[in-house]
């Protein structure tokens, strides 16, 4: 298969709703020799913060000289973005070759047992397969949705982490923090250490109960490790970190107050990993280089400085609150132009209620071309009923990148990560063609 055939084939397995359950993954991976059981896996779940925490952790482990595989979702440009070793995406030819192998299984004699397999399950299996064949030192696997029945949860990890718990995908995971925590806690394994981030007490109680039942040692935010934000600077956040294993002041390479918690959790994961594998803890100067050198597309990512434009995948109320805290911290005296959209399973009204609280802001809704996207008619009707603007997103970008500013302005493109993948590709093409700015 060539690249276009690859995209068309796997797109046939895309679904608007996940097909929860591990039976297909177990069957599929068994047919490939169980590559997931040949890996040292760090398994990361949670509502928000997974991607940034993984980005920090990847850099930290790489600075130790390790080969680190990372599986993340969703991709921002192409399927290859989801699977990488030391920051290098899986080569397209290799991905196409693996897809041929999986197509033979899914369409051959084993097809009945694999009925209902999804796009995400295929990509998860390919990630395990690729990392095992490349003999990485450690693979970091990001949970797609939930945890208990997520396709990544077939692994036998050496370490697990749960970043945050918030109300997201409530129709699928439950409409309380406790119910969602129960699903997220499904990644906890017997006797395997668990690192937790800044989690509300009612959700943490559920996670603690599950961990205690499995004799999983817990490394808890605020108890076993602490972080303290010091100051926001142009390129990130300065914070203090304290644990029984490490104390120091560090600088994140990612913007946003919440990145202090993500970086702190990555440090707790790093030091626990070193303990579990008998490695010496890296010195603070190595840690500082790794944290400051971390980048993660689509997370408060400045894609243009003149004019100022930021992409941020705030795709649920919990993430919107984090975005708003950063806007208040960094851009109090700026006029804000916000472009927003989301997919069908998200809490549209709740997120708009939050975005409407941003002072000196103009909020515009838009739609993007994806089967998972909220219907265009719904977005237009919502914009009308709330007295908001509605605009085609390409038109919005072209207009914002070329018009003269009457006052200091920041443009925030936010909402679905699937949407940001299209925005980012469009901006990259535009930049390649004629540059971002009117200059």
Automatic annotation (TrEMBL):
Tell me the cofactors it needs: Mg(2+)
Swiss-Prot/TrEMBL GO biological process terms: peptidoglycan biosynthetic process
Q: Which UniProt keywords apply?
A: ATP-binding, Ligase, Magnesium, Metal-binding, Nucleotide-binding
Pfam families cross-referenced by the UniProt entry:
Mur_ligase_C, Mur_ligase_M
What PROSITE patterns has UniProt attached to this entry?
FOLYLPOLYGLU_SYNT_1 (PS01011)
Q: Which domain of life is it from?
A: Bacteria
Q: Which one of the record's GO molecular function terms can you name?
A: tetrahydrofolylpolyglutamate synthase activity
Report the top EC class in one word.
ligase
| Record-listed E.C. numbers | 6.3.2.17
Which reactions fall under this protein's catalytic activity? (6S)-5,6,7,8-tetrahydrofolyl-(gamma-L-Glu)(n) + L-glutamate + ATP = (6S)-5,6,7,8-tetrahydrofolyl-(gamma-L-Glu)(n+1) + ADP + phosphate + H(+)
Cellular component per GO, a single term: cytoplasm
Residue ranges occupied by any Mur ligase central domain in the UniProt entry: 44-269
Which SUPFAM superfamilies does its entry note? MurD-like peptide ligases, catalytic domain (SSF53623), MurD-like peptide ligases, peptide-binding domain (SSF53244)
What PANTHER family does its record include? DIHYDROFOLATE SYNTHETASE-RELATED, FOLYLPOLYGLUTAMATE SYNTHASE-RELATED
Instruction: Describe the family membership recorded for this protein in Swiss-Prot or TrEMBL.
Output: Belongs to the folylpolyglutamate synthase family.
Name-wise, this protein is tetrahydrofolate synthase
Traced from the root, the source organism's taxonomic lineage reads: Bacteria, Bacillati, Bacillota, Bacilli, Lactobacillales
């Amino acid at each position: 298969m060539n690249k276009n055939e690859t995209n068309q084939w796997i797109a046939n397995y895309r679904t608007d709703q996940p097909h929860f359950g591990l039976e297909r993954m177990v069957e599929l991976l068994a047919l490939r020799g169980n590559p997931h059981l040949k890996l040292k896996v760090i398994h990361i779940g949670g509502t928000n913060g997974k991607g940034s925490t993984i980005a920090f952790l990847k850099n930290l482990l790489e600075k130790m000289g390790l080969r680190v595989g990372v599986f993340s979702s969703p991709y921002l440009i192409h399927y290859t973005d989801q699977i990488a070793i030391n920051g290098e995406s899986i080569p397209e030819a290799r991905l196409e070759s693996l897809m041929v192998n999986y197509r033979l299984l899914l369409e051959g004699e084993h097809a009945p047992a694999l009925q209902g397999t999804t796009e995400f399950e295929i990509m998860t299996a390919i990630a395990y397969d690729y990392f095992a064949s490349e003999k990485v030192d450690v693979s970091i696997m990001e949970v797609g949705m939930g945890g208990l029945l997520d396709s990544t949860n077939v692994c036998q990890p050496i370490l697990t982490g749960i970043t945050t718990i918030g109300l997201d995908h409530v129709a699928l995971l439950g409409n309380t923090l406790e119910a969602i925590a129960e699903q997220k806690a499904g990644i906890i394994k017997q006797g395997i250490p668990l690192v937790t981030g800044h989690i509300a007490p009612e959700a943490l109680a559920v996670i603690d109960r599950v961990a205690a039942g499995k004799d999983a040692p817990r490394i808890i935010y605020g108890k076993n490790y602490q972080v303290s934000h010091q100051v926001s600077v142009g390129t990130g956040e300065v914070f203090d970190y304290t644990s029984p294993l490490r104390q120091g002041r560090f600088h994140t390479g990612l913007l946003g107050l919440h990145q202090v918690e993500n970086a702190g959790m990555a440090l707790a994961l790093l030091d626990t990993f070193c303990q579990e594998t008998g490695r010496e803890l890296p010195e603070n100067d190595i840690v500082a280089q790794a944290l400051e050198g971390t980048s993660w597309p689509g997370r408060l990512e400045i894609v243009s400085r003149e004019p100022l434009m930021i992409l941020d995948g705030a795709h649920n109320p919990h993430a919107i609150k984090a975005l708003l805290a950063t806007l208040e911290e960094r851009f109090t005296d700026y006029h804000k132009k916000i472009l927003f959209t989301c997919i069908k399973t998200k809490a549209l009204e709740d997120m708009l209620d939050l975005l409407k609280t941003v002072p000196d802001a103009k909020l515009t809704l838009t739609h993007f071309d994806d089967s998972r996207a909220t219907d265009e008619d719904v977005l237009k009707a919502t914009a009308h009923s709330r007295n908001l603007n509605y605009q085609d997103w390409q038109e919005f970008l072209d207009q914002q990148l070329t018009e003269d500013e009457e006052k200091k302005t920041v443009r925030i493109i936010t909402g679905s990560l699937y949407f940001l993948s299209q925005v980012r590709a469009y901006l990259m093409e535009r930049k390649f063609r004629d540059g971002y700015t009117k200059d």
